[in-house]
Q: What sequence folds into this?
């Protein structure tokens, strides 16, 4: 029986976004970012020793609830080259079959690169431990390594809030530590513009001037709001921030957009809901058409109200709900 190790990692959704890099080769961000980990949306990676020559990627098929991404040749190479970087750092020799899968749709703005690269980093470390090559590595150290594969993956080593400024992310403890998450899945098709391309393209937007300052100021507001459990301020800052990122995309040269009419409509309904009720979810979008909502746990009845309005108006959407409220809709 060949040696097999396995690891899982959550996706994460940033409220202050990583968009724009100071170094593309090392994934160094133009600004600090802050995210919430989505423990119900995970990737799994298995690594198995092989006597064949060279590492190879395969889709993960066996695990219940996980389906394999259809990784392009380029995507497979990127994944394996991160594995080779990790092997070198951890002193691992030999060849391996690397299998990966997600329990949610890939490449449509649900940050599958974050969860899959973080799971790969954890799996390489599990292998190094199994071979007694590595002592204790902290999550912060693993986060620094994971950043090299995909920037946003460095925040997926943590549960809850994670803040990434330079080398890697760190966990943040705010009073709001138990939140529910709804993903409104509007489009699960593979996106045309990858996030790596988006990081480059945004720098051509006239709005990119001042972006670092805007994101830095917003991060300070967000952290203050989270410290004070000021939910309305968290909502306002998050709304401003994802609209800023999408405006960068839409004013790039050449321009591109991930938003569709439904994402715009849902954003407007959430704003109207807040005006009417003086309460509502925190809304954000990643580099995709889908809409993410975060809720406090005491908001179940308004969540039911808003989400039934959404599904009445757009019956074809799918809701992916975090475990706490999974059977409540
Ligand atoms: O890690 P990357 O290169 O896939 O960057 C993705 C960045 C966004 O998801 C668009 C925003 C973020 O901070 O997660």
A:
């Amino acid at each position: 029986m060949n040696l097999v190790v396995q690891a899982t990692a959550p996706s994460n959704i940033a409220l202050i976004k990583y968009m724009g890099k100071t170094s593309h080769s090392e994934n160094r961000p133009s600004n600090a970012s802050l995210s919430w980990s989505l423990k119900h949306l995970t990737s799994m990676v298995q690594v198995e020793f092989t006597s064949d020559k060279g590492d190879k990627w395969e889709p993960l098929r066996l695990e219940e609830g996980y389906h394999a991404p259809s990784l392009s040749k380029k995507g497979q190479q990127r994944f394996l080259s991160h594995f080779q970087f990790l092997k070198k750092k951890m002193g691992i020799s030999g060849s391996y079959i690397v299998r990966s899968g997600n329990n949610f749709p890939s490449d449509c703005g649900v940050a599958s690169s974050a969860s899959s690269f973080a799971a790969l980093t954890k799996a390489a470390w599990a292998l190094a431990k199994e071979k007694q090559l590595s002592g204790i590595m902290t999550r912060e150290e693993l986060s620094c390594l994971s950043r090299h594969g995909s920037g946003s993956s460095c925040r997926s080593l943590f549960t809850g809030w994670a803040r990434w400024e330079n080398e890697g992310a760190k966990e943040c403890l705010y009073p709001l530590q138990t939140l529910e998450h709804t993903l409104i899945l509007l489009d699960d098709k593979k996106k045309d513009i990858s996030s790596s391309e988006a990081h480059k393209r945004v720098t051509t937007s006239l709005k990119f001037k001042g972006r670092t300052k805007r994101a830095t100021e917003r991060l300070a507001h967000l952290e203050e709001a989270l410290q004070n459990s000021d939910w309305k301020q968290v909502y306002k800052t998050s709304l401003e921030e994802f609209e800023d990122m999408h405006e960068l995309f839409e004013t790039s040269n050449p321009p591109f957009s991930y938003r569709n009419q439904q994402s715009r409509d849902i954003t407007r309904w959430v704003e109207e809901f807040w005006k009417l009720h003086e309460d509502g979810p925190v809304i954000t979008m990643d580099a995709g058409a889908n809409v993410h909502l975060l809720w406090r746990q005491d908001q179940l009845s308004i969540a039911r109200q808003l989400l039934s309005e959404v599904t009445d108006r757009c019956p074809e959407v799918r809701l992916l709900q975090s475990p706490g409220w999974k059977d409540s809709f």
